[in-house]
Write a structure and sequence with these properties.
The complex is a heterodimer. Chain A is mainly α. Chain A has one domain. Chain A has four helices and no strands. Chain A has helices at 3-21, 25-44, 46-55, 61-108. Mean pLDDT of chain A is 83; it is low at 109-114. Chain B is an alpha/beta fold. Chain B has a single domain (31-251), classed as Alpha-Beta Complex (Spore Coat Polysaccharide Biosynthesis Protein SpsA, Chain A), CATH 3.90.550.10. Chain B has a seven-stranded mixed beta sheet, sandwiched between helices. Chain B has a two-stranded parallel ribbon with strand order 6-9. In chain B, strand 2 (62-67), helix 3 and strand 3 form a beta-alpha-beta unit. The longest helix of chain B has 23 residues, at 3-25. Classes of the chains: A mainly alpha, B alpha/beta. At the A-B interface, helix 4 of A face helix 1, strand 3 and helix 4 of B.
Amino acid sequence: MYLSQLILIALILFFLIYIFYFRDALLDRLVYLVLMLAGIIVVLFPDLSTSIANLIGIGRGADLIFYAFIMYTLFNNIAQVSQIKKIEHQITVLVRKRAIAEAIEGSSSPEKDN
Amino acid sequence: MLEGESLQKAQFNAIAQQYTLHLGECSPPMKERANVWIVVPAYNEAQVIGEVLNQLCQLPYNVVVVDDGSVDHTYQRALDFPVTVLRHVCNLGQGAALQTGIEYALLFPETEFIVTFDSDGQHGRDSIAQLLDSLKTGNYDVALGSRFLRRGDAVNINLRKQLTLKLAILLTRITTGLKLTDTHNGLRAFTAKAAAQIKIKQNRMAHASEILSQISELKLRYCEIPVTITYTEYSKVKGQKIVQSINIIWDMLRSHL
């Protein structure tokens, strides 16, 4: 087994644990920032990606970036799903409160229009 | 917590509180027979809801219809009957509609029992009394309807539907440990105490499994009562397709995020 394989599997496992146990909006943004910075550095020093890739047993720097991209997409996707879920819950609570409030108002006022 | 997020939360709480104040000020309408509420979630059921409500209104119980953002005349049809009609301004899903109806029923301190009843005409109104009888003994917190407890209760069921339901029953047995014969039956009865403990967070169809897993977690005492489910042409078209069970599994997985 190559070092790169170990690292990728470890990363995926870390993501799973992170997602289910200690996800935090601040940490999410930290991860984005680190990835952005890494992107800038790789653009500035194109050879760097190849040397890092070789260091952990991946042939080309482009492959390393591709793997990193997949991990980033996965991470981003999960962060978004979780955000949508939160918004959905807020909408549910609002719609529910409104439905109940309307019914109570409607029945207490004498001029009920059917 | 981040600044933007806490601001959002504060705004949201402010809006929510306005509504709560409203709820506190007005006194809800009362009936003499006020201790049982039947919650009927309805989405685009204008064709059949009249008949269902006609049946339910002959029973000595309160009825609350939750119109889940229907785009047809479900709301107007329901207003013709002596029932309370709540309206979601947009479609949220059956789970959300049930929770709304239950929360409304629980506003009344006299409420002792809450029954959930589907609006597509597949349940029989006579089953309600049987569910309530078992709760009135005080031995159970929840009474669940089952179409597979008694032979011939699932009228006109097709083989594919039957297989899917059996699979769901097996999965529920594995995940919750509840030994049930029917896990996706819309006819249930809760004591007010149990209904207050159960919080349906699954807005769509995964609520059926969610209710069961909460019964298991809260260690509520439950029983199954045989009820007849009649599959009409209407309910076959309107009802859940088997491929939609994938949506349920997806919603269940998503709830862990």
